[in-house]
Design brief:
Rossmann fold, 5-stranded parallel β-sheet, 5-stranded mixed β-sheet, 16 helices, single chain, alpha/beta
Length: 440
């Protein structure tokens, strides 16, 4: 018996395979390479997951796979409303009806976007992997299923690739100003332009739709992104009964980007204002915000779980452009924005990241444990022109190195004097170069 969606799905297949490949800014997203696994493309709303699926499709086409072997289908189509898992077989049958020579004979690739809109899709996806000669990519985000949960719902049959707002290099590429040579080979004029572009990136952020907008339009756009996350990914999904508390929490977290945050102190502040809320509820709200990719919290770098639990966490927004929306000081928060950008560069490299607080009371912004086993201590600074600032940052790295003697000590600064005297073992990196290269 044919599904009521068969003809519509067949038309969507015809349209998708006839559509020209979109010209999109190329993303530098790491992909796990494990045969037999689906790949779940995850990330915050509007970060570019759908665009990345099209990039993957275009890559396979450029590598020699004809368009008939590549299928992109978005289930975010009102004509597919009410579709059930039992109707998903109609997609496979419609595809092979159109391309019978591909069944069992050739390896095709399906890109299923917003798949979570179909209830019970998970067994269908697992069966595709088991019974058809199909490579499978999945993506989606909704109040029903966060993008992070697409992979976990596959019960070990899918791995994740995380799409974030543009990195600094990707933002330059989008603007047509990505350097065609190593940063150390730039002329003085090119270096000045690069530093100017970094300042703009730290202020405006990396969401694709926000690039090139005026300040008011960009603020309204980014605010709509945050509101969408709060309403659909947190309030609706978890049926929160105290939405105002959630908004106060977000204001506190994003209004103090790169700052320390304690649930206990925030809970005490709410109680002093007569707001009844359970401490566990606040912990859950913070976890929900992280699950929705709106922010990332960094714990103390230590092997002691207890020390991690009793010390505050440092909280960073998903994008530097969000800082201005919530910072009430009215001043450019460039130093914290740079710290946010450095953190996300470390996370993109696959590092496990914590912050350092030494027994002597010195703080280092990040301890990063890389997949290679290498360890970095990273101190971020806006301007090293002041000798006292330089001495303080270097001293913190030297103190932290006593705990991690094998770690490389990196000092990443936006403004670097022409000559800087550093003790042995301290590496100085210009921020525009370090962010552009993704690592030293």
């Amino acid at each position: 018996m044919e599904s009521q969606y068969t003809l519509l799905l067949l038309q969507k297949i015809i349209d998708a395979q006839a559509a020209p490949l979109p010209g999109l800014t190329r993303r530098d997203v790491w992909l796990p390479a494990v045969p037999g696994k689906a790949l779940a493309v995850i990330g915050m709303r509007r970060a570019g997951k759908t665009s990345f699926l099209w990039q993957l499709l275009a890559d396979r086409h450029a590598q020699g796979t004809p368009r008939e072997g590549l299928l992109y289908i978005s289930f975010e189509d009102e004509r597919l409303a009410g579709m059930q898992a039992s109707d998903l077989d109609a997609l496979v049958e419609a595809y092979y009806r159109r391309h019978p020579e591909w069944r069992d004979q050739r390896h095709c690739t399906f890109f299923l976007d917003e798949i979570q809109t179909v209830p019970g899709w998970e067994p269908f996806a697992r069966r595709l992997l088991d019974t058809e000669n199909i490579e499978l990519f999945l993506s989606g985000s909704s109040a029903k299923l966060l993008s992070r949960e697409v992979a976990t719902s596959m019960r070990g049959r899918a791995l994740e690739a995380t799409v974030t707002p543009f990195s600094f290099r990707e933002a330059l590429r989008h603007a047509g100003r990505e350097p065609g040579k190593p940063p150390g080979h730039l002329t003085k004029g090119e270096q000045s332009q690069l530093d100017h572009d970094l300042g703009a990136y730290l202020q405006h952020g990396g969401f694709a739709e926000a690039q090139g907008l005026d300040t008011r339009s960009r603020s309204e756009l980014l605010r709509s992104y945050v509101d969408g996350v709060l309403l659909r990914d947190v309030m609706e999904r978890h049926n929160l009964s105290q939405p105002q508390v959630l908004r106060w929490l977000v204001q506190q977290l994003l209004g103090n980007a790169a700052g320390a945050f304690s649930i206990n102190k925030f809970h005490a502040d709410l109680r002093s204002r007569g707001v009844p809320v359970a401490k566990d509820t606040l912990h859950q709200m913070l976890a929900h915000l992280e699950d929705a990719f709106l922010l990332h919290s960094v714990a103390l770098a230590t092997d002691s779980i207890r020390r991690q639990q009793v010390n505050p966490r440092k909280v960073y927004p998903v994008d530097t452009g969000l800082i201005a929306l919530f910072d009430r000081s009215g001043k450019p928060n460039t130093g914290h924005a740079l710290e946010v950008a450095v953190l996300h560069t470390l996370l993109r490299s696959g590092a496990q990241v914590g912050y350092v607080l030494t027994p002597a009371g010195c703080e280092v912004d990040f301890h990063a444990a890389l997949p290679s086993g290498e360890q970095w201590l990273v101190q971020v600074c806006l301007d090293l022109g002041d000798s006292a600032t330089l001495q303080r940052e270097v001293h913190a790295l030297q103190d932290a190195r006593q705990q991690w003697p094998q770690a490389r000590c990196l000092l990443v600064a936006q403004q670097v004097p022409p000559t800087v005297a550093l003790p042995p073992g301290i590496e100085l990196h210009r921020a525009s170069h370090w962010l552009l290269e993704g690592r030293p």
